[in-house]
Design goal:
This protein is α/β, with parallel strands linked by helices. The protein contains 13 helices and 17 strands. The two termini are about 35 Å apart. The protein binds ligand C6P.
Length: about 400
């Protein structure tokens, strides 16, 4: 229904119509977003927060209006809690560096889950080498749901922070983060929610989740690459030191001493991606007009339809079979290498992702090197799923 808003979807690859099912990696962009970028450079380009001149003020207004759009989209209390970053990865590194430096010490524990993306593992390992705290890993059941009893046992007065993806980028599992936040808070710990794979698919409200930090990437929610968001509870952001030093984030600099800007600018060193923030706001307005609930219902239908069809394909092993599963179907077929399946599907015009999906510890838990993954967006259709299943059957027959 919305396909015509996405010009790229009507192109062909290898002389075949494109069936794009790699949306968990990045989504395609509606015309409104691409045009917003062009228009911003043609008509309103000037550095923000610096100039007294007309263009700078107009660009600044747009950048700050975008912050308000993000605030409203995720239900934050104040724009002071919305920090623009380069994406989820930078948001996670920001929290690790800044929160970690201020609040973590030897003997403390940081809890991660077995299904975290590398971006929510490696920053904590880097910091652990410097600070000497302990990482605890929440295991999962075979259906891809977290072992909540193990999580409950893990929480103690040593727990400082719990880091959990809202939705697994491989399993599609929607984790019970609201419950996890409540449990962590009862134990006196903070919670960081990696919402890279939830914000594009259903309404996410930070006040309702009551989380302390939440991260997401613009490019996964129909916005441009290079822009992302860190939500942080104001109390924590106030108490945390700056992440990077430079322009924008200072109040006054002398060679003896520097004082920092108020929130959120304290965390935004250097010229921000003000064109990206504006285009992200256009993307969020776009999905809001369609309605996150409508997007969610549509993608849930596609996921269930695809899962049912996959179960009929001989030799298929599915990863992630919880009832609360979102927009991702991960699988292997017999002993066919995932890369071969992906490459042959590509020749049929069908784009899926193969490999470890930046979740190698999860692959180890599943006992595999890698797998294939089809992932859905608002513009996908049952016809896309039919084409994918037909393509998969053809590929399987070739082996
Ligand atoms: N997952 C995927 O194909 P960046 O690269 O910073 O925009 O997002 C990192 C990231 C963090 N957390 C989760 C849950 C993610 O899924 C991702 C990105 C892509 O699954 C690229 S590896």
């Amino acid at each position: 229904m919305y396909r015509s808003d996405f010009p790229i979807l009507s192109r062909e690859v290898y002389g075949r119509p494109l069936v794009y099912l790699d949306n968990a990696a990045t989504t395609q962009k509606p015309r409104a977003v691409v045009e917003a970028i062009t228009e911003a450079y043609y008509a309103v380009n000037a550095n923000v927060h610096r100039g007294v001149h007309f263009l700078s003020q107009q660009a600044t207004e747009r950048h700050e209006a975008a912050r308000e759009t993000v605030r409203a989209f995720i239900g934050a209390r104040s724009t002071a809690e919305i920090v623009f970053t380069r994406g989820t990865t930078e948001s996670l590194n920001l929290v690790a560096s800044s929160f970690g430096a201020a609040f973590l010490k030897p003997g403390d524990e940081v809890v991660l889950t077995v299904m975290e993306h590398h971006s929510d593992i490696v920053p904590w390992q880097l910091l652990r080498e410097r600070l000497g705290f302990t990482l605890r890993i929440v295991p999962m059941h075979d259906d891809g749901s977290l072992d909540m009893a193990a999580y409950a046992d893990m929480l103690s007065e040593s727990t400082r922070l719990v880091c959990c993806c809202h939705v697994s980028n491989v399993l599609g599992t929607v984790n019970p983060v609201k419950q996890m936040v409540r449990m962590a808070h009862d134990a006196g710990a903070c919670v960081l929610v990696d919402a890279a794979q939830s914000v594009p698919h259903f309404a996410v409200d930070v006040a309702d989740l009551d989380c302390d930090f939440l991260t997401f990437s613009g490019h996964k929610v129909y916005g441009p690459t290079g822009i992302g968001v860190l939500y942080g509870r104001e109390r924590w952001l106030e108490a945390m030191p700056p992440y990077q030093g430079g322009g924008e984030m200072i109040s006054r600099v002398t060679f003896e001493r520097t004082t920092y800007e108020r929130l959120p600018y304290k965390f935004e060193a250097g010229t921000p991606d003000y064109v990206g923030s504006h285009a992200l706001a256009v993307a969020l307005d776009y999905v809001s007009r369609i309605g996150m609930d409508a997007i969610h219902a549509h993608e849930r239908d596609l996921t269930a339809y695809c899962m049912a069809a996959m179960r009929e394909v001989e030799g298929v092993r599915l990863y992630g079979e919880t009832a609360d599963k979102d927009a991702v179907v991960a699988f292997n077929v017999g002993d066919i290498h995932h890369l071969d399946i992906g490459t042959l599907l590509d020749r049929l015009g069908i784009a899926i992702r193969t490999g470890h999906h930046c979740a190698q510890p999860l692959m180890q838990r599943l006992g595999i090197e890698g797998c294939c993954r089809a992932s859905f967006a608002l513009y996908n259709t049952r016809e896309d799923v039919d084409a994918f299943i037909a393509g998969l059957r053809r590929v399987v027959q070739m082996f």
